[in-house]
Amino acid sequence: MIPSERLLSILWKALLVVLPVSSFSLLSKVFGGTSVAPFAFLPMAAIFIFWWLPAFFKNGRRLPYQVKPLLIFFLFGIISTLLFYFHSVPTFRDIPWLRNSAEVFVTLAMGIGFYLVTIYLIKDEQKLRTTLFWISIGGIALIVYSWFQYGTWLVMGKFPEWMYQIQSFITANGTLYEGRASGFAYEPSWLAHELNMIYIPIWFGLSLSGQTVFDKKLFTKIQYEKILLLLALGILFISFSRIGWITMILMTTYIVVRLTNNWIKRISEKQNKNTRTSAGLQLIFRLGIWFGLILGLIAVILLAGLIMTKLEPRMANLFDIQRFIDFGFLGWASKLGFAERIIYWQAAYGVFQLYPMLGAGFGIPGYYFTLTVPNFGSRLPEINRAVFSQTFIPNAKNLWVRLLSETGIIGFALFVSWLVIHWRNANDLDKESTHGLVKTMGLVGKLIILAMIVEGFSLDSFGLPYYWIALGLIAASRLIRDQASARTGANMEVTSDINA
Length: 500
Hints:
0% strand, globular
């Protein structure tokens, strides 16, 4: 291995290990105090500049087909933003809208960089296995630190000063949250986002398939991924991130439905061999199973809600139906602490209604906040602070509404089509007849996209690396499969020619 390749390998492994650090304090200061400052940006930028760009120009500027809708989306966003130069953007704060737009371009370019570097470096199944291994190493560090945080709180009832000093070095806000784990992340909801977008889907998929990226098993029998999955689920719970819990419920529901469907198929095959079982009885059997499953899922959701009301103070009024009747949905949501989020969504959606086709441009919808915020927002202290006292431009706090407000229905369609390509890639991998790590990535990919759909209702940043790298894993796995198929086809042609 030549030195440059060795350095490239070191940088890639370092990037994967430091993924949990989402808002590194020193990097945040360099970026002007932004909360989105992933430590992994440093090795990613080095790989992109010194390896990816030279390889791109050397190989005739060819890009995988999965990248093209994303680049079209990026170019469309630039055009939409530049066209808005001819509009009269409302005055809000003393921040020029061009500066705010430039920051969005930088964070989006950062995310695309993570995506392209991931595809570039994972070229075969062995590199995929190595990548998942080092992601797991970073996940182990995250698990240890998160449980240490929460354990300290349980034992002492508070966090000692030296822990705040450590957290101030790791994160931009240096905040520890009483009774909640935040790990290396900026806040507990970001911790849940990391777990749901990267670690849990990978460990879930590997556990179900029996694949492992570790050389050994615990006591020679227990797969390490299963242990890591259980510990990660525990951390997700003690993060007390409501959107994180909902995301996990969706992924688990998909797994349960998937396993149930496979079980029903096996039972049906056995019944088909038994000619005495009529088609009507088989249909009743299948309907009964699905009806029971639906009732079971409803019961689990209600039980989860009941647990939330006991453990999470913000959810104490979850089942207060009378308040919902008296004050409406927003009045009910205000007691649960998420009415503010909905107000941000509605304000951004109001901008989409003003500019439905092209959107207002990257970073611009926040300038319309005082014009589109619903009247109910004036009753909420957080919304009043956003209008009168805070120094930054409000954002949508929802990826999907942000896409609509900034790039309109056209940009939204381009971004969603990019996700659909990855779902189809994952589905193709999932249907592979031969078992292996690449096939397992089909299930992992589906869990990742399901998680992204839900997590998009909580975070709207382009700069966090988690879904970019996660989707890059799907694209890289599909390219590995395609290359293997091409080699198999070429070998078959050679064999045919020899036999002829």
